[in-house]
Input
Amino acid sequence: MDLLDFVCVKNYMQSERPGIIFHLAGQSAVGLSWKEPQMTFSINVNATLNLLDAARELPAPARVLLIGSGDEYGKTDGAAPIKETAPLKPETPYAVSKCAQEEMARLYTRAYGMDIVLTRSFNHTGPQQRRGFVVPDFASQIAAIEKGGDPVLKVGNLSAERDFSDVRDVARAYRLLAEKGRPGEIYNGGAGKACRIRDLLDILEDRCAARRREDAAGRCAGDCKRYYKAAKRYGVCGGIYDRRNIAGYFGLLEKAE
Output
């Protein structure tokens, strides 16, 4: 289904008549948003409006879980976790598009009484994540080096700190928010603690026997030094993001239960 085609979206909605809509479709690569800002806005904002307008015409109201991003907060000094009440300071085209998407959803909640629950999800990774994100990019490069490829590992800013969760915990959180979240409310989603990009790379490199060297030239515009999230606010899914720590995901530590 092409979310940029309103007629297509409307016909599909009328045919399926969903009770809950998990809206995860979008352009989520920060680096690509600098190269293709118009495409990023079209997918993240216009497609979302098509979905909301189609949902609004359903004979029975549907609940919509709309996925935002921790990137909406922009840079922080890392002195304290980020709360949902923190000001938004987007610093990438991707983050700006997610802020616009979120504001339209909140407007639809107020104006039309739509049942929309919103998240600002922080970084997550897991099996089958495609290239274009930090962990699969590192992993694919290391795999190529071990096969005899160019021993230069392009790494970007390794001092940046991010909140990383296992995607399976994130999926569980989305299900609980769809069941128990409050309409119009925004919920941060993350583990509540920072992880250096360098630490992620070290975990992967410890499993690589091939000789290599790092090249930091891959750092992208707007790369934030540090940010992470507050894990205490939401009652419906508090604590579930921390069931698997990031090192455990790579099989180096036991799962944090």
In short: The mean pLDDT is 80. The domain at 19-124+163-194 is CATH 3.40.50.720 (Rossmann fold). The helical segments are 6-16, 30-35, 37-56, 93-112, 134-146, 167-180, 197-205, 246-249.
